[in-house]
Each structure stands twice: as C-alpha cells, then as structure tokens.
Amino acid sequence: MKIPPYLKKGDTVALVCTARKFFPDDAKPAIALLASWGLKAKLGRTIGLDSCQLGGTDAERIADFQEMLDDENIKAIWCARGGYGTVRIIDSLDFTKFKKHPKWIMGFSDVTVLHSQLNVERVATLHSIMPFTVPKAPEEVKETLRKALFGEAISYTIPSKLYDIKGKASGELVGGNISILYSLLGSKSSIDTDGKILFIEDLDEYLYHIDRMMYNLKRNGYFEKVKGIIVGSMTDMHDNEIPFGQNEVQIITEIAKEYNIPIAFEFPAGHQKDNRTLIFGKKVDFEVNEKEIKLKFD
User: Fold this and answer.
1) Does the annotation mark 121 as catalytic?
2) Does 97 reside within a domain?
3) Do the beta carbons of residue 49 and residue 76 sit within 8 Å?
4) Closest-CA residue to 127 (of 100, 102, 107)
C-alpha cells in the first residue's frame, strides 16, 4: 500500500466536484479552514458549474479531476460534496501518473467510489468531511482531518455498547458507504475484504434495503475473511408501514454472527456532524471490550 506524502505548510489542496454541484461562495469555510492550517486552496474548474444535479458534465468533471491528479503542485484533492455522480467518471480517469506520485484524496459518501478504486490501485485515501460539511463540523472533527493530512498520530477510543460484539482484530481498514460498496460489486472497483477491517455507513435508507445489501455482500463473500466490522452512522433509516421487524443493528448482527468477528456500532464517522477521519488502506488495531471501542492506526 502506498501512503501519499503528508502535507506541510504552504502546500496546495484542490477542491473539485466529482458528483453534485458546489459553488465558490460555499467553498469559503473550507478555504478558510485550509488557510488556518497554513495550506493554500485551488478551486477546480468544476466549482461553480451547474449541470442539473451535477457539478459540470461528465466530461468537465473528468477533465478537472484528471488535471488535479496530474498536477505535481497539488498535494491533495478534496472532493467538494457527495450525492451521486462519481461512478459516471471513474472509468475515464487515468491513475498512471498518480500512482507514481500519489496524493491524498479526501471525502466520504459518493467518494466511496474513489476510495474503492484507489484501494484496488493500492493507494491510501482519507474518509473525511468535505467542503460541503465543513460549516457544521465540530472543531475536534476538523482536527482529525488536519492530523491525518500532516501525518500526526490518530487513534479513537469511545464507549462500547451492550450490542457491540466483543473481540480484537488487526488489519487494513477499507470500506465506506454501504450503498456504494454494494453498487460496485462485480466491477473492477470492488474492494478485496480478505483480512481487512471493514467500515460501513449509510444515510436515508429503508431497513429492508440495508438487509438486502448486507445479504448481497455476504453472498459475494465479503464477510468470509473479514477480521472485523466497524459500523458508522446509519442516519435517518426508514421503515415501511408494515414494519420490517429488525433495526440496522439487528440486521447486521444477524447476518454477520456466523463469522465470530468484533463488530462496533455507532462509530463516529459518516453522515453526521461527528464524522472523524479514517485512513483507508492503513493497518489498524481494533478492539471492542466491555467498556470501550478502540481504533488505532499504525
């Protein structure tokens, strides 16, 4: 696994749209945050473009992202917001130069497409807040991104819950939004979960959708050699008029119980204000005990 160079003061971070549209005025809080860290911001040409939901046409988003990938003066690329659209451009991007000179790619939600493709390419990425979510992000959450970018040590300890599954495991951290992971199955962007710690999260889904996605992942062998599962925020889950009969915790526990692996629920990452940075592609030590959930990056 290639770890991109950590940033130093004076470096430049590019802001681009790979999915939904995002405008220059909306970027001001993110630009100010980068400046407070001693970093420069460069707005990609897609910031301000308006193509229905998207931040520019597919061709415009491809060209903008490719330019930032290949520009040696850009040390990190921050995807402006999620939504939908990254999968429309992923197969047209050329990572040849990027793999020789990797840089940090940052974001969450729809950015899971990039996290997954780059994990296949064996380059680490940051699952983190995005410029769109900066205004509502607590200071301690922003600090986790700064630490990750500058190569400072990151570890998390949070209280465990009665329904967490106890245990210890170590392995490379992979994952992202479960709907995106599900949609990538069978493609060249689908990640290898063997020996890994899998992180999943989602937003605005029906409970039976979560059940269907989990079963499909299971049938595709996703969990057979996974060392552990970290479940982030499952925000705004819905049920039908006739109840499904299980909540998200029960669904995931039932499907994964045969694997005898540690499982942590409600980890502070995903579609919520407390969205702490995770380094995908790095080895982690993961423990769930009677009192705490511990996640330490090597």
Assistant:
1) no
2) yes
3) no
4) 107
Q: Which residues of 195-219 are buried (b: 16+ CB within 10 A; e: fewer)?
A: ebbbbbbbbebebebbbebbeebee
Give the per-residue pLDDT at 215.
98
Three-class secondary structure of residue 286 per DSSP: strand
The pLDDT score that the predictor gives to residue 249 is 98
Indicate if 201 belongs to the active site: yes
Q: Total structural domains in the chain? A: 2
Distance CA 75, CA 64 (A): 15
Catalytic residue among 115, 128, 189, 271: 271
Q: What confidence category does residue 2 fall into, taking pLDDT thresholds of 50, 70 and 90?
A: very high
Interval 146-178: pLDDT, tens: 999 999 999 999 999 999 999 999 999 999 999
Q: Give the mean model confidence (pLDDT) for residues 267-291.
A: 98
- From the candidates 109, 160, 189, 190, give the one annotated as an active-site residue: 109
The residue range of the domain holding 273 is 155-297
Domain-embedded: residue 1: no
DSSP 273: S
Residue 52 CA to residue 15 CA, distance in Å, equals 20
Together in a domain, 27 and 125: yes
pLDDT in tens, 102-111: 999 999 999 9
- As a whole number, mean pLDDT of residues 121-140 equals 98
Give me the DSSP letters along 121-160. TTB-EEE---TTTGGGS-HHHHHHHHHHHTT---EEEEE-
**Could you give the 3-state DSSP secondary structure of residue 68?**
helix
What is the per-residue pLDDT for 26?
A: 97
CATH number at residue 45: 3.40.50.10740
Q: Is 143 a catalytic residue?
A: no
Cα–Cα distance, 215 to 104 (Å, whole number): 32
Catalytic residue among 60, 172, 201, 205: 201
252 and 143, same structural domain? no
